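Weekly modeling sync, notes
Attendees: AB, CL, MP (scribe)

Item 1: holo prediction request
CL wants a bound-state model with FE2/S2 (inorganic) cluster before deciding which constructs to order. AB pointed out that an apo prediction alone won't tell us much about the pocket. Agreed to run with the ligand included and paste results into these notes for async review.

Input as submitted:
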Amino acid sequence: MNEVCFKNIDKENPSSLATYEATGGYSVWRKILHGELSPEAILGELKTSGLRGRGGAGFPTGLKWSFMPRNQDGQKYVVCNSDEGEPGTCKDRDILRFNPHSVIEGMAIAGYVMGATVGYNYIRGEFMEPYYRFEEALKEAYDAGLLGGDIGDSEVNFDLHTHLGAGAYICGEETALLESLEGKKGQPRFKPPFPANVGLYGMPTTINNTESFASVPDILARGGQWFADLGVPNSGGCKLFSVTGHVTKPANFEIPMGTPFSELLKMAGGLREGRTLKAVIPGGSSTPVLPADDAMKMTMDYDSIEQVGSMLGAGSVIVMDDTTCMVAALTRLAHFYYDESCGQCTPCREGTGWMYRVLKRIMDGQGKIQDLDLLMSVQDKIMGNTICALGDAAAMPVESFIRHFRHEFEYYIKHGKSMVENDG
Amino acid sequence: MISEQAKQQIDTWVAKYPAGYQSSAVMEALKIVQAENDGSLTSELIQAVADYLEMPVISAHEVATFYENYNHKPVGKHVIRFCHNISCMLNGADDLISYLETKTGVKTGEVSEDGLVSVKKVECLGACVGAPMFQIGDQYYENLTPQKIDEILDGLQ
Ligand SMILES: Cc1cc2nc3c(=O)[nH]c(=O)nc-3n(C[C@H](O)[C@H](O)[C@H](O)COP(=O)(O)O)c2cc1C
Ligand code: SF4
Ligand code: FES
């Protein structure tokens, strides 16, 4: 456990440069500065490592980096997505607080590989403590001569800045994030063109999640194969999982991919006394909910979670015991997506509002049994019909909650109250 | 309209972006002038920021209304931003929000009579392992209980 992003978490001053360097930090970056590591070699190791994007979509990081037109003239950018806002997710906050240098080194390496000399770390506006920690680390790195122009006569340039958000979940979507970084409303762009061709200020840009960048230095220091072997086929390495909800010791755990969910649940202290497991959302609020039986069958890797009908997402495991009212839980999520839709596409803007109002009506005791089919048809009309994935993210909880827990919704509609007596 | 000190702060943000892209600093600039104005924005302030950053005022207005961190009505000296999203909800956030409302006599969305606090329900603040939680200013308060809330409220001046 805790082998990569969290390896210094129990040390004194985990975020300091000294602690980071004591465990091999910046050794890869120094090799690069000494001209001992080529971009091709780095891309090769990353591909071997099996690292997939930790922001939710799971796109292979090595492949993504290889899409950048590295030798094209003109400015290129590296952007880190620290806008962490997916309900249930709180891992990037801890990386920024306890291992900020790994993000800096990962971004610098990315810049070198892709020919980008400027990077921005977009940190959500509420993360002020992480922001101050990251800024301190940046200053340490500059003072130590690890960043800037022509670093140590290496002819390598990399400048890194932080940018703060201002409260909008949608800015976690990579093209909305770019708009926001340009000082605009966070409305996702149409793709194509992809950011690798037209990104920040119209220039080629690569965006990765905080945890993705933070994993890169150790992968290169210890080898892609080492990282791949920590995990299972198709899910290389270890990954942070935020376990929250109805467990006695909610926390972030960095564990090998492929760890059984039952073990992760134990690490988080298990359920409260006398309670039984009802449901698990395995990857953050945007991933389909699983009934207990299916959840207990899964191991924490992309393929296994997909086989039981959900997604690994950002690794945000939301545990719900038998006291949970599934109608109330879904209503809260529906409200969230309704609130956070940027309003650009009709199916998302209207659909999220509609789903929330219907669920609210059920919660208020005014529901009709046809409402369940209505909800299913609205979510179906959103699925796949929007500019960005927030639409799907809003649709999937509705579909999966109703499919797996239809009896609870029917009970609520019939009786005007929850089937679960002891809610909360 | 914008103080010299605020201008200096804004300039440190402008310096991060390429020449000609100073409007990238608009989000922070709005926060800086909002902080100087006791926590809320006015049309005049938004106009002043737009002028200072040489950007269309409509774009600054769009930003000021799109993002949640800006207030367009007066707020309390301390804004208690209570997360009510899923992980916090599962850990009793709703009851604690009611507790806070009763204790302070301030409903969510309102300001206390003495102007000291306002309460706002917000979405996931990315601290779900510490649920239930809220934010006041730069600070997160996690694993809240009624007793803990009492202590925090007592400490507010
Ligand atoms: C609505 C929405 C919200 C998102 N929020 C985040 C986020 O908070 N952090 C993140 O890294 N990725 C988020 N993503 C995914 C990004 O668009 C993007 O895929 C990711 O940052 C790429 O980095 P990765 O390949 O390293 O995962 C979000 C996507 C959507 C559609
Ligand atoms: S799907 Fe929703 S959030 Fe995404 S661009 Fe369309 S309206 Fe905006
Ligand atoms: S759900 Fe409350 S902090 Fe994430």
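Recorded for review: Residues A 53-57, 59, 81, 83-86, 170, 172-174, 207-209, 212, 388-390, 393 surround flavin mononucleotide (ligand 1) (CB under 6 Å).
Action items: CL to compare against the apo run; MP to circulate these notes.
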